[in-house]
Design brief:
By secondary structure, the chain is α/β, with parallel strands linked by helices. The protein has 6 helices and 7 strands; from the N terminus they run βαβαβαβαβαβαβ. The longest helix is centred in the middle third of the chain and has 26 residues. The structure holds nicotinamide-adenine-dinucleotide. The site of nicotinamide-adenine-dinucleotide (NAD) has 28 residues, from helix 1.
Length: about 270
């Protein structure tokens, strides 16, 4: 008997940059924050509709007002409410009138402890709940809802360069957990036609960092390899690439957005 031959074909068409997310409906947690709102601005500018999810409605309303004329929907929701994750996608469909095609699990907090002895159980649990448990169960709910019809869907998780660094525990531990999850499930989701990736920003000027760094929008200078902090817009550009069809061959990757700070070169060769 002749062995059945597996045939794989890729239909590839070059992307049209100005409409690269046309028809996509992107759910962004932490959508009212610095990086989440920059994602919303970028994604809508290239054809997507966005559903912002945040526990601070006033922050989302500001973003929505700024993006008047674009398809922007908002959902006030606390991502630590793990039990409601499946309903979140059902509600998102009702509000936007479409299935969610892309999940950006981006909400996160850092309580900026500088040493293990500063970490209380409450602070530890909160950071685990927002940064690790929520993206995990969001991903699970997204897969459960859409895995049977997975083709073309994407998941992007905002992790951090802190996953590999010695500062900010337990924050960095939560992000290391996310990196592990992204790699662990990439084969499973890719087989079905979906992709999952992570972006790992370096220090980026947002509400999360503003009070802890001396850099400002007017002067981004910062001690460190890059010599400056990042701005949310450049993180959003990379995010856009990773959720678009410009990156069809990338899955299971963590892309550092920190101008090589994680490379640890001793010399500027
Ligand atoms: N700013 C940085 O230097 C930096 C560096 C690396 C990674 N990150 C990651 O980027 C992501 C976005 O952070 P950002 O810098 O935009 O900070 P940000 O504080 O501006 O935005 C975070 C958003 O998440 C929301 N949020 C917090 N807890 C929530 C909850 N329980 N439910 C729903 N929403 C909640 C906040 O209201 C806020 O709008 C985070 O995951 C963060 O860990 C940031």
């Amino acid at each position: 008997m002749e062995e059945e031959k597996k045939i794989v074909q890729v239909k590839f068409s070059p992307v049209q940059a100005d409409r690269i997310l046309a028809g996509q409906n992107v759910l962004i947690t932490g959508g009212g924050g610095g990086i989440g709102s920059a994602m919303a601005r970028k994604f809508t500018s290239v054809g997507a509709s966005v559903i912002l999810v945040d526990n601070k409605p006033e922050k989302m309303e500001k973003v929505k007002a700024e993006l008047t004329g674009y398809p922007v929907f908002t959902m006030t929701y606390d991502v630590t409410d793990t039990k409601d994750m499946p309903e979140l996608f059902a509600d998102a469909e009702k509000i936007s009138g479409k299935e969610v095609t892309i999940l950006c699990a981006n909400a996160g907090i850092s309580l900026h402890e500088h040493g293990i002895t500063e970490v209380t159980r409450e602070k530890f649990d909160l950071q685990i709940a927002v940064n690790l448990r929520a993206p995990f169960f969001l991903t699970k709910a997204f897969l459960e809802r859409y895995e049977k019809n997975a083709r073309g869907r994407k998941i992007l998780i905002t992790t951090s360069e802190a996953a590999d660094e010695g500062f900010d525990r337990p924050y960095g531990m939560t992000k290391a957990g996310l990196n592990n999850m992204i790699k662990a499930i990439s084969h499973r989701v890719y087989e079905k036609g979906m992709r999952i990736n992570g972006i790992a920003p370096g220090v980026t000027i947002t509400d999360m960092t503003r009070d802890n760094i001396s850099s400002t929008e007017q002067n981004l200078a910062y001690e460190g390899v890059a010599g400056r902090v990042m701005v949310p817009e450049e993180i959003a550009e990379v995010a856009c690439f990773l959720i678009s069809d410009a990156s069809t061959c990338i899955s299971g990757e963590i892309i550092h957005c920190n101008a090589s700070a994680h490379v640890r070169s001793y010399y500027k060769a």
